[in-house]
Design goal:
With 280 residues, the protein is mainly α. The chain folds into 2 domains: 49 residues, no CATH class; 230 residues. It is built from 6 helices and no strands. The structure holds zinc ion (ZN). Zinc ion binds next to loops.
Length: 280
């Protein structure tokens, strides 16, 4: 397979080319230089690093990984109202629906995340640059441990102390780091397509998620703080902020899912181009 980039032999990059690490536009710079923003070799952002030139099986893993994660989120979206309904109706047999969809969610997102973060076999970039993959995987395992421990705690009832509950909450919070990490991870892949619109949309979803979560935790702290101060106006205000940010999770999740559908399409298109190049 030869390098098909037309601009690699030029003395300077003649078209818009985002840096693979930070997204800085490398246009006008020499191909053998370094990114002025993050010092990444410019060469990494050129031809051979293009996503469609990556390993065929790896590209296939990316597409399948995103596909599993999307269906996992669908299962989670069904599980939430199902859990609320079961809690209200209190017919034990109905619990099959939220428990079943919960298990489906865990299995599909775990499988999907694992596939998405598969190491690239022929990466032109050193592996230490891919440490984000490990952060995502470790956070995923920790959050799964938190869920299992949480279920066991629920069964054990009042025997366990507050410390253990705090441990469970902290373990489950690693899911937030995992999901935000996934967005940063796929954004790097979008720069390799390169697809500027997809990069921009990913940044928007990422920042909206960070702001929503930040406001949620802030409201949570304010509720606790206002409670100790006994200020009624502050308690009410913090309560409203917490409700609003809780409800904002659903549209953000749908927006995130829509973005992942876009990624699945992009990964499949890259895999198709890759197959065409291979067969030439
Ligand atoms: Zn850069």
């Amino acid at each position: 397979m030869t390098d098909s980039s037309p601009h690699i032999a030029e003395s300077e990059i003649s078209r818009d080319t985002p840096c693979v690490t930070c997204g800085y536009n490398l246009r006008g710079l020499p191909p053998d230089g370094r990114c002025p923003e993050c010092d990444t070799p410019i060469d990494w952002s050129l031809g051979r690093y293009r996503l469609c030139l990556a390993d065929t099986n790896w590209l296939d893993s990316l597409g399948r990984g995103v596909h599993f994660i999307i269906w996992g989120i669908v299962a989670a979206i069904i599980a939430v109202p199902a859990t609320i309904t079961c809690a209200l109706v209190d017919v034990w047999i109905l619990w099959i629906v939220p428990v079943g969809t919960g298990i489906v969610w865990a299995v599909l997102t775990t499988r999907g995340t694992w596939l998405l973060t598969t190491p690239e076999p022929t990466s032109p970039i050193p592996e230490e640059r891919h440490s984000l993959r490990w952060v995502i995987r470790v956070c995923m395992m920790l959050s799964l441990a938190g869920i299992v421990l949480g279920v066991l705690l629920g069964r054990l009832g009042g025997i366990t102390g507050q410390v253990l509950e705090l441990v469970v909450t902290m373990l489950m919070c690693t899911r937030v780091i995992q999901n935000l990490g996934e967005l940063v991870y796929v954004r790097r892949l979008a720069r390799r397509v390169p697809d500027a619109d997809l990069v921009r949309s990913t940044s928007r979803v990422l920042w909206t998620a960070i702001i929503t979560l930040g406001l949620f935790f802030l409201a949570d702290a304010l509720v606790a703080g206002a409670g100790t101060l006994g200020n009624a106006v502050l308690i009410r205000g913090a309560g409203i902020l917490k409700d609003v940010t809780s409800f904002a999770v659903l549209p953000v999740a749908l927006w995130y899912t829509n973005l992942l559908i876009w990624y699945e399409r992009v990964f499949k298109a890259a895999a198709n181009v890759n197959l065409r190049i291979q067969s030439q």
